[in-house]
Amino acid sequence: MELLGKVRRMHYRDGLSRSEIARRTGLSRNTVKKWLTAPEAVEPRYRRLQAPGKLDPFHGALLQALEADARRPKRDRRTAKALYAELKSQGYAGGYTVLTDFIRHWREQAGANAPTRAFVPLRFELGEAFQFDWSEERLVIGGVWRKLLVAHLKLCASRAFVLIAYPSQSHEMLFDAHTRSFQALGGIPRRGIYDNMKTAVDKVKKGKGRVVNARFSALCSHYLFDPDFCNVASGWEKGVVEKNVQDSRRRIWQEAGTLRFGSFAESL
Fold first, then answer.
1. Which residues, including other chains, have CB under 8 Å from residue 30's CB and lie 6 or more apart?
2. CA-CA distance, 223 to 217, in Å (whole number)?
3. What DSSP designation does 265 have?
């Protein structure tokens, strides 16, 4: 606005020509002419045309993929890297960060009206606790889709973890998973955090009351750690291993699902 006033004063008060004003101010003559013929006290505005980006032609396909994933279970949703690979196969030649910015903006808009909940961050000392959980995965073994039960045992402080796949979730598999995990990690923490799985809890009582399975109690007694069970439907209380389930599914099992194995042992 200050430069506009200067141009008007130079022309109407000092009587300078448009060419002289352009020379003194460094503006183009067309700009000087436009400003002098514009209504008084109207601030000039520049409109920069937005050049189409490399991602623009793929907006429709990307939105369709994001909306489809939003209706799927979390375990089946594609990561940004997976979507990036799909777009590249369709001819996308842009960068990865442009795609992640678009996905982040879309998710923020989609979740703008979603209720938010606050959680207290978990802090653990070294050797204090581990968290255990099962996940269900599927692989093609011998030409047939087979269900695998994967045991996840993760240390809460160091985040070291062990994954072991089994054909079922029986007591024998549960005990074997603990034995192999403790051997691989080289020690046993003082406390184990679990959900209320049937192989560990026979009955859930009010509050923290639990009727612990006798065989599972024998396991805890043998390895000298205290079992700690989460509240019902409170998976965030063992969020360390819950995150591990999600990460391993994206890093291992989604890609493994595209492969074919001749036997269960071969898949391991």
1. none
2. 10
3. H
Question: Across the chain, which distance is largest between two alpha carbons, in Å?
Answer: 102
The answer to whether residues 256 and 235 touch, using CB atoms and an 8 Å cutoff, is no
Exposure string (b/e) for 109-139, b if CB count within 10 Å is 16 or more? eeeeeeeeeeeeeeebeeeebbbbbbbebeb
Per-residue pLDDT reduced to its tens digit, 236-246: 888 899 988 88
**Residue 188 or 6, more confident:** 188
Q: Phi, psi at residue 130, to the nearest 5°?
A: -130, 160
Specify whether the CB–CB gap between 58 and 92 falls below 8 A. Answer: yes
What length does the chain have?
268
Distance CA 247, CA 239 (A): 12
CA dist., res. 225 & res. 175, Å (int)? 14
pLDDT in tens, 82-118: 899 989 999 999 899 999 999 998 888 876 555 555 5
Contacts 24+ apart (CB under 8 A), 237-241: 237/193, 238/131, 238/132, 238/133, 238/193, 238/194, 238/195, 239/119, 239/122, 240/122, 240/131, 240/154, 240/156, 240/159, 241/131, 241/132, 241/133, 241/152, 241/153, 241/154, 241/161, 241/193
Residue 102, SS3? Answer: helix
Q: Give the DSSP letter string of 19-34.
A: HHHHHHH---HHHHHH
CA angle 108, 112, 113 (to 5 degrees): 155
HEC letters along 161-186: EEEEEECCCCHHHHHHHHHHHHHHHC
- The amino acid present at 55, given as its one-letter code, is L
